Amino acid sequence: MSLVESELRSFIGDNFFLADDSKRLSGNASLTRDGIIDSVGIVELLHFIETHYGIEITDDETIPENIDSIDNIVRYVSRKLETDAPRREAQAS
Amino acid sequence: MTLTLGLSPDALRIDAERVVDEITTGIRLLVRQMRKRGVVVGLSGGVDSSVVAALCARAIGSERVLGLFMPERESAAESLRLAQFVAEHLGIGTVLEDITAILDAAGCYERRDSAIKQLIPDYAPDWKSKVALPSVVHDDRFRIFSVVAESPTGERRRARVTPVAYGELIAAMNFKQRTRKMMEYYHADRLNYAVAGTPNRLEYDQGFFVKNGDGAADLKPIAHLYKTQVYHIAEHLGIPDEIRRRPPTTDTYSLPQTQEEFYFSLPYDKMDLCLYARDNGVTAAAAAAAVGLSEEQVERVFKDIDAKRRAAEYLHLSPQLIADVPAVTR
């Protein structure tokens, strides 16, 4: 399990009352359709990803392909960290 | 059962006289069962509360219906004018309760402003604001609330909500609906009346109400009627044109806001058809033509209906007990 996946599972477990079940949550389960999180949960999840990983999620990126399962979020966050890293380094220097 | 036949726009057609008879009979029965002497209705100047007041007046007599006007400093002036107009038309008694001072004392406006400032730092109390959702039909984006604020000079800012700001904003704004309900029950207690709620089926089913705010009532006479049907009944009951033509509004935020941008995905007539289709096993493909959308767009609306229904389960829950109390009938 990657660090991002572990952190995500921990966040979902702590915040959506699934502390034990989160480990068993399938990586491709739909967080919204399976009733794990609702629209407020989406807001919390986006905020966690943005603040914890220091990335900005644009409105166009708030789609199920990026956000609706643990597998999708891990892929999305990893991609954003890669693409945003040069920009962040440029801003820092 | 899945219907593969197309959905007719006439699917929601009703026999208005028969429906009015059923509802007025029901109101008389319920008021009698509750041993109340009349009904209080909060009048917003919209079609739903106007129809509920008219049905109550027809059921138990206009002299037994009290219409309440409950504006606050951010209400549209038109709401009070139209509410007064319909009350006069129905010949019911009325009381005006300006709830601004209560909201001020509870910190409604100040807490709201503080929540918005977290998202839009140069926001100031003399700005106007609202919350808005993106359309559900155009893409697959999650429908996440944004705050839209407008300065006195017309400069607009928009920011997606954060969890803390969103919670504080909604909690502050819910003071409005809860204060109104408190006033309705004040007058109901004083007169030994029941309180009539005014949700239509879309609002009731999809959770477009504040728990223990406008969601609270002793009876909800039109909760089973689609909004389209409420308009049919309004016409049948002779509710004035001006009220029937007014676009549905929340009248909760200081910037003008339609129900569509706050909560529902589509104009009410299309939303009604989608909800009807969802509940009657009509596929998205079969519903698309009648709704005037593509199959894919109707699928998105169906998903949104399901998501709102899940969220509304909590809103509909009465207080839950750990163990039964058999002596109390529930």
Average predicted confidence as pLDDT of chain A: 86
Element order, helices and strands of chain A?
A: HHHH
* Category from helices, strands and their pairing of chain B: alpha/beta
CATH class term of the largest domain in chain B: Alpha Beta
Stretches of chain B where pLDDT is under 50 for at least 5 consecutive residues are none
Q: What's the number of structural domains of chain A?
A: 1
Task: Give the overall pLDDT of chain B as a whole number.
Answer: 92
CATH H-level homologous superfamily name of chain A: ACP-like
The CATH architecture name of the largest domain in chain B reads: 3-Layer(aba) Sandwich
Element-by-element helix/strand order of chain B: HEHEHEHHEEEHEHHHHHHH
The fraction of residues in strands of chain A falls at under 5%
Number of domains of chain B: 2
Radius of gyration of chain A, in angstroms, nearest whole number: 13 Å
Give the chain pair forming the largest contact, with residue counts. A-B, 18 and 18 residues
| Assembly category | heterodimer
Largest sheet: number of strands, sense, barrel closure of chain A: none
Using the alpha-carbon principal axes, give the shape of chain B.
globular
Number of DSSP helices of chain A? 4
Strand content of chain B: 5-15%
| CATH homologous superfamily caption of the largest domain in chain B | HUPs
Q: How many β-strand runs of chain A? A: 0
Write structural notes for this entry.
The complex is a heterodimer of chains A (93) and B (330). Chain A contains four helices and no strands. Chain A has 93 residues and is an all-alpha fold. Chain A has a single domain (3-92), classed as Non-ribosomal Peptide Synthetase Peptidyl Carrier Protein, Chain A. In chain A, α1 (3-15) packs across α4 (70-92). The N and C termini of chain A lie far apart (33 Å). Chain B folds into two domains: 11-104 and 171-249, HUPs (Rossmann fold, 3-Layer(aba) Sandwich); 107-168, no CATH class. Chain B has helices at 16-33, 47-60, 77-90, 100-106, 108-119, 163-191, 201-206, 227-236, 241-245, 259-262, 268-279, 284-291, 295-316; strands at 39-42, 65-69, 93-96, 128-132, 146-150, 156-160, 194-196. Chain B has a four-stranded parallel beta sheet, with helices on both faces. In chain B, strands 4-5-6 form a three-stranded antiparallel beta sheet, with no helix packed on it. In chain B, a hairpin with a 5-residue loop joins β5 (146-150) and β6 (156-160). The A-B interface holds A 32-33, 35, 38-40, 42-44, 46-47, 59-60, 62-65, 67 and B 134, 139-145, 160-163, 166-167, 303, 307, 310-311.
